[in-house]
Amino acid sequence: MTTAALNNLWTYINGLSLKKKDREWLANKLFEPTEVEAETKRQQEFVKESLTRAINEVRAAKREGRKLMTLEEFEEELKAEGIL
After folding, report:
1. Do 75 and 84 contact (CB within 8 A), yes or no?
2. pTM for the complete prediction?
3. How far apart are CA 81 and CA 73, in angstroms?
4. In the 8-state DSSP scheme, what is residue 46?
């Protein structure tokens, strides 16, 4: 929105006779995350948790001297599972 549009909206809102409960409801609606924002946050958390688990698994494998899967082996596994 443009500054002028926001100013008009603010003028309109100020012109309403809102009770405290109504102002609180409006404020909560303005700060409520949208469905898209919430889904994006869930996806970001999933990626972060997945990468953290993967890094921890690599560290553990190195400590224990286990052989790690190569990128090619991982790609073949994903293809076999129908993911790629």
Report:
1. yes
2. 0.47
3. 12
4. H
